[in-house]
Amino acid sequence: QSTNDILVSWFWNLVGPHVGLMAVNFRQRLDIVGDDHAGNYVNPIPYTPEDYKSANLIRRSLETCRRAGAATDGEAKNEATTELPRPSSDLTFSVISNWSSFLPVKRDERSGGDDDGDCTDGTEMTLIRHLPIVYPGRMIETMPKRMSFLIVFSSGTDDIGCVLIAPGRVMEEIDCCGIVEEKIAEF
After folding, report:
1. Do residues 10 and 50 touch, judged by C-beta distance below 8 A?
2. What's the Cα-to-Cα distance from 140 to each of 7, 67, 170, 186, 187, rounded to whole Å?
3. Which of 12, 88, 146, 154 has fewest C-beta within 10 Å?
4. H helix or E strand, kind and range, residue 57
């Protein structure tokens, strides 16, 4: 299990969406796509509550690039993959994307050229914090009300950060549980 597996399962169990969509980078997950291939190889894996009920199921899904929960028929377990719900105006959705593996480049990791991490006037730059660029105000205005959104990212230190848009009850529960050490902004 990884931090991602635990966060995804925890968050979706808290929010309880009918469908969770996790954006997955397929580089190094599929034999035909590696780091040297040009293009964007990210696609969502859809999850149902049976698929995200544990971090182990999230891990298994990432190993196979498909849902890992087993469908249930009443009391008996069926080994078939879970079925996604039929389209309906009552469905709730949640989208998660993990950017934490896209670490900011450190000065000593740069290569080539005269780029030594200095500003044009010779002043050395130091990374204080790395934040993803998103426009939460615009997202809140345009995002469907029955949807939540989570981006996990590396802040340039050993810490991870999250951009989170979720229903008020979820935000309150997260505030109360003590998982958040610092709020950078609130919308």
Report:
1. no
2. 22, 28, 15, 12, 9
3. 88
4. helix 55-64
